[in-house]
Amino acid sequence: MATKVYIVYYSMYGHVERLAQEIKKGAEAVDGVEAKLWQVPETLSDEILAKMSAPPKTDAPVITPNDLTEADGIIFGFPTRFGMMAAQFKAFMDSTGGLWKTQALAGKPAGIFYSTGSQGGGQETTALTAITQLVHHGMIFVPVGYTFGDGMFEMENIKGGSPYGAGTFAGDGSRQPSELELGLAFHQGKHIAAIAKRLKGSA
């Protein structure tokens, strides 16, 4: 049976979604892995989103908590709000209480990726504060570490991401993920998918 990797994200302006798409490609590069993109439910009204100049959502399906149980590995992505995950994603995690009660996600490998507005905007604090969600569910946090090699040590160009996971800087919204940031996202997808496959095979 194929190993299922779910990439579950919230993206208001498209930056996190672009990383998610590359993570999916990376996961699918592992033989025997099926990867799928999922969005978490939006909590803001269309009127508010329009005032915030948010583009329309893409056609990625909206996930429910019970969908998470079907995955062999999950990679969660979200933009940063004041150094933590956006409220929309936190609201989704808050809705997984039933899964927490039964520990239905315990033992599943999980990763994290993110977008911040600036270099001091929470590239590490967002990941650190998100890990608590995984811990309470008994999930296995899989960081990228320094497995991306020289790309982790780039100093000449602005680069999001960290040993915790892939990341990008959105700036005022006009900046899009760089090739290096997308490369780390692809690597993260491949890295976690391979681990999920290995764990599934040993079960």
Please, could you describe this protein's structure?
With 203 residues, the chain is α/β, with parallel strands linked by helices. It contains 6 helices and 7 strands; from the N terminus they run E-H-E-H-E-E-H-H-E-H-E-E-H. The chain has helices at residues 15-28, 46-51, 87-94, 97-102, 125-137, 179-202, and strands at 3-9, 33-39, 73-81, 84-85, 109-116, 140-141, 167-169. Strands 1, 2, 3, 4, 5, 6 and 7 form a 7-stranded mixed beta sheet that branches. The longest helix is centred in the last third of the chain and has 24 residues, at 179-202. It is globular and about 45 Å long. The two termini are 13 Å apart. The mean pLDDT is 96.
Mean pLDDT: 96
What is the CA-based Rg, rounded? 16 Å
Give the uncertain stretches in residue-range form. none
Overall, the morphology is globular
Q: How helix-rich are the residues, as a percent range?
A: 25-40%
